[in-house]
Amino acid sequence: TVQGGVGDVKAAGNYAASLLAQKEAEAMGCDQVLWLDCCERKYVEEVGTSNIFFVLDDILVTPPLSGTIMPGITRDSVLALAKDRKVEVQERPIAIEEVLEGCKSGRLRESFASGTAAVISPVGAFQYRQQEYIINENEVGPLTKEFYQTLLALQTGATTCEHKWQIRVC
Hints:
Blueprint: H1 12-16, H2 19-27, E1 34-36, E2 44-47, E3 51-56, E4 59-62, H3 73-84, E5 88-91, H4 96-105, E6 108-115, E7 119-122, E8 125-128, E9 131-134, H5 142-156
Parallel strand pairs: 4-5
Antiparallel strand pairs: 1-2, 3-4, 3-6, 6-7, 8-9
EC number: 2.6.1.42
GO biological process, one term: amino acid biosynthetic process
Protein name: Branched-chain-amino-acid aminotransferase
């Protein structure tokens, strides 16, 4: 989304504009579109309609909220859980070239999408300019699993947490 636009809110136009790209991605065997910034087409912003995370070495990296992506509730939850677990987090611009190089070198150990419907969805590979880049031999990483299991347990009431995210409704 363009800076100053409505990429940071749920608006029908945001979804409608993505339909053609999503159809093209599916035709290439991909599940989602990894969106880059609209100005330089260099920095990763989102995946599909979800926030994106990368585990580079032992650092959890996610694009910053710059007015062009959704400030997701699940994104906030992941960041809080990471802080609880003393995982180093960086909210910073991340170039697609850094992601691809991380796949090649093994520095990119995990990637996942977060969203209300997606909860935590692992990313096993990226396709970019007709080349596939595999992450962690297409295996779900430990941090991705932990975040998924924790959030699912919180959503279903199987556990509680100090953040008071749950409210009992009778």
